[in-house]
Amino acid sequence: MAFSIRSVTKKLFIFFNVLAAIFFLLGCYGHFLNQETFWFTGLINLASFYLLMILFAFLLFWLVVKPRLAIISLVTMLLAWSPLTQLLQFRFSDDFEMKKKPTNLRVMSWNVEHFEIAAHKKRPQSKQEMIRLINNYQPDIACFQEMVASDTVPTAINYLPDFAKALNMPYYFYSYNIKLDYDKNHHFGIIIFSRYPFAQKRTVSYAPNNYNSIFQYADVVRGADTFRVFNLHLQSLRFSDADRQYLEQPNIDEENNFRQSRNILSKFKEGFIKRKDQSDRIKEEMKKSPYPLIVCGDFNDVPNSYAYYHIGEGLNNSFVKEGSGIGRTFSHISRTLRIDNIFVSPALEVTQFGRVEKKLSDHFPIVTDLYYKKP
Asked: CA–CA separation, 308 vs 319, rounded Å?
């Protein structure tokens, strides 16, 4: 009897180990599948870090109990080595040197969550703290998403010329759709700030012409060099406060659980499919660039997703090159969500990467230093 229980238990452990391996590989390589049909692979990819931890736990368990069965997890990790390096970096430190080398170009990307405009009357210091943080890093180029500002009303709370002066970046390019204005004085969009002039700038919009179907690029000229900078914000999941609360602290009400789960699942599906279409359009514009690329933005998706893989194909991710750990950039729901990225052309060497873990927005800003290796 004891032998039978031990045998069944062993088979169960092998089954769950193999199951975790299949799910992990499906999450890592699901971006190769048709996203409209296999959209659920995006859900599995969201759990990639946890699946990796399960595989690692099985690896240790088998090394102690039955060493030859450790090959299940080991082979899985080897098969997924390239996606795994996008997910996790094993460097011991990512200390960021604040003093920038004159030959380097410093780039920042940040979802600024409206620059706390809703709380301006109660907490006007919040915006000033955000501006001080940006100035501490002194980026040459800064790409912001969810930028609420005015380019025409001098009395507006977030008047763009005031921002440009405060950040010491006189050149800026603001993209928005007037149908989605924040209020009568402010728009809602994405913006590129720069210490260097623009040779060309363009907003790309397509049906349904909402916020997430807009992206922008600008050709930044530094001396004899020109770089094409893309700024984008892909489809968000549009989670309500109730959705977030449910994900972070599920309740035991079965009827409510079913309703909430179905609602959240539909938002996930819509998000995966829309980000696929948005990524395809962005990539088409990227291919037209005659200059080295810098692609910044809130991807609203994790490493190895379709959006991450498709937009980043042929480019280097600044976190992968010089970051460490998981690199979380979104402060809610899960500690594993790295959804903000800076991708660059291979001609731009990533010399350092930093993530500013200061909660002034629902995202953490990321910053990287780049050295242009001229052909």
From this structure: 13
Phi-psi region of 297 (alpha: psi -120 to 50; beta: other; left: phi over 0): left
| pTM, entire model | 0.92
Among residues 253, 217, 66, 254, the alpha carbon closest in space to that of 143 is found at: 217
331 CB-near residues (< 8 Å, 6+ apart): 359, 362, 363, 364
Packed helices 48-65 and 71-79: angle between N→C axes, nearest 10 degrees: 150
Residue 101 DSSP class: P
Q: Which two tokens stand for residue 139?
A: 């980026």
> Cβ distance 285 to 232 under 8 Å?
no
Spatial CB neighbours of 63, under 8 Å, sequence gap ≥ 6:
70
- Write out the E strands in 80-224: 104-111, 141-149, 171-176, 187-194, 198-205, 214-222
Segment 111-151, tens digit of pLDDT: 999 998 887 877 888 999 999 999 999 999 999 999 999 99
How many Å apart are CA 356 and CA 362, to the nearest integer?
12
In eight-state DSSP terms, residue 326 is: -
Q: Which residue has the higher pLDDT, 207 or 188?
A: 188
Give just the sign of the alpha carbon dihedral 253, 259, 265, 267.
negative
For residue 214, give the DSSP letter: E
How far is 155 from 97, CA to CA, in rounded Å?
A: 38
